[in-house]
Design brief:
The protein has 391 residues and is mainly α. The protein is built from 19 helices and no strands. The protein binds magnesium ion (MG).
């Protein structure tokens, strides 16, 4: 018979170094327990149901939304991160619900148009405290989501918020109380957070190879000198002589992901065994425990370096991103000069918060909404047609 008892550490086989939902540091506003779910399951569910999560569908990282339907969006990226992070979490006896909650929320604060959008918004806000997407993710879950009667934001557990705030300047950390303390004291977050962070890296390195090839912006031969890809490609070609095209790419990438995940679990287990953490607080006090082995770190860094030069700095991507930055600047200037251009609820926020409210509004936009607003405010179209289809 199904039991409605909340999971306990003993029942759920959590390792001693895992985050225990029964021992959470709690929420900012007290709430009744989420029975039959655990506290971290409730966080995961709140993230999935929030507006910012749905917007991830129309936000991109490398390819702008109009460029094609087959590329990753931030939504599919976040789902891939959650899948990879859960596999690693299970291999390490971690709390999978917390790993998943952090993974699904990790990009909620991203602006439209990926890093180009964030850089442009940061430049616009330079004399008003700047803009940083990690802090913005926290702002989304702490303040900006407006769906509960008793509080602003999603009122997530400390451990989920700790995982969402991956990086933070010492200056910003000083204003964040308990949550910012680790950046000042140079402590680590939970292993669940460390794993979600590395799963993000595994996901984007691999899917950017896939999307890069699919778009035609990188070619298969360019990857011949990239050890991680080339080694697995040879293995695939040995196993399936004559394999080519999408099947070759997919078979190679799935092996790369598996290799990275397996290596990460192995190295992290070794580090856990050496450090001997007996609680989540021991994890926080130790050196980073989740890590790739040194040879794998080298191979992953080589791949990353390749993507930077060949894809992220590809002239076609550069051109699109330069236009995206211009769209962000024009939107910011227009709203800052005339807040009556904003929807009514945001006008009120400008009175209370100044330009931070303008940044919040723009950061929340999807790529396509930003492009529509740009057309409405300037009468111009920011982009021509997208990339030709590469099925
Ligand atoms: Mg990410």
């Amino acid at each position: 018979m199904a039991s409605s008892t909340p999971p306990s550490r003993a029942a759920s086989a959590l390792a001693p170094w895992a985050a225990d939902p029964l021992a959470s540091r709690g929420r900012r506003h007290r709430e009744p327990p989420p029975t039959p779910r655990s506290e971290f399951q409730r966080d995961r569910d709140r993230i999935v149901h929030c507006t910012a999560f749905r917007r991830l569908e129309y936000k991109t990282q490398v390819f702008v939304n109009h460029e094609g339907d087959l590329f990753r969006t931030r939504l599919t990226h976040s789902i891939e991160v959650a899948q990879i992070a859960r596999s690693i979490g299970r291999g390490l006896g971690l709390c999978e619900d917390l790993v998943e909650a952090i993974a699904l929320a990790h990009d909620l604060g991203h602006t439209p148009f990926g890093h180009a959008g964030q850089d442009a918004l940061d430049a616009c806000m330079r004399t008003h405290g700047g803009f940083e997407h990690n802090l913005q993710s926290l702002r989304v879950v702490d303040e900006l989501e407006q769906c509960y009667g008793g509080f602003d934001g999603l009122n997530l557990c400390f451990e989920t918020r700790e995982g969402i705030l991956k990086h933070c300047s010492r200056e910003s950390a000083a204003g964040l109380g308990e949550l910012g303390a680790r950046f000042l004291e140079r402590r680590q977050p939970s292993l669940e957070a460390q794993v979600a962070n590395l799963a993000d890296e595994i996901a984007y390195n691999n899917h950017d190879v896939d999307d890069g090839l699919r778009s035609g912006l990188i070619r298969l031969e360019q990857l011949d000198d990239i050890d991680l890809f080339a080694g697995h490609r040879r293995e695939v070609e040995r196993a399936y002589p004559g394999i080519a095209g999408r099947r070759l790419v997919h078979e190679t990438i799935r092996r790369m992901i598996n290799d990275l995940v397996t290596d990460l679990i192995g190295e992290t287990r070794r580090r856990i065994a050496a450090a001997g953490p007996r609680s989540i607080d021991d994890v926080r006090a130790a050196a980073p425990l989740a890590a790739f082995s040194a040879p794998m770190r080298e191979r992953a860094t080589q791949l990353k370096g390749f993507l930077h030069v060949a894809l992220y700095r590809h002239p076609r991507v550069d051109e699109v991103m330069a236009r995206a930055r211009a769209v962000m600047r024009r939107l910011f200037e227009a709203y800052a000069a005339d807040p009556s251009l904003l929807p009514e609820e945001h006008r009120g926020r400008v009175e209370a918060l100044g330009l931070r409210a303008v940044a919040d509004y723009i950061a929340g936009m999807t790529d396509r909404f930003a492009l529509r607003e740009y057309a409405r405010l300037t009468g111009e179209t920011a982009f021509g047609p997208g990339l030709p289809d590469h099925p």
